[in-house]
Amino acid sequence: YLGPNFTTIASAGHIRALKSSIASLGTYPEYAPTYEFIKTKSHIIKNLLSSARKCKDSHGTIYIASDDDREGEAIAYSIALLLKLPISLTHHASCSMKLQREQSERV
Fold this sequence. Notes:
The protein is about 25% helix and about 15% strand. The chain is built from two helices and four strands. It has helices at about 40-55, 70-80, and strands spanning about 15-20, 35, 65, 95-100. The longest helix is centred in the middle third of the chain and has 16 residues, at about 40-55. The radius of gyration is 16 Å and the shape is elongated.
């Protein structure tokens, strides 16, 4: 349980997907896929951006907590890109990614 000093926001799954055209896969030999943010998730995207702005304005830290599988990692990566957070595999990143199993207090 994180406590009252934290704000948690759920992405409710993926917020970014391959563009709908076949060209989004790129061509051989690069195969550089092209992604776009999902329009039906615009309300969640706006909420994430607004909350991140408030956090940055108050010099807070943004934590991205995801499931410990490849899909969770992809969702966390999409959120980091959306929020324009520096992505680093070292411990010196401005964006902290962590595994979080539960965000609410058990009753």
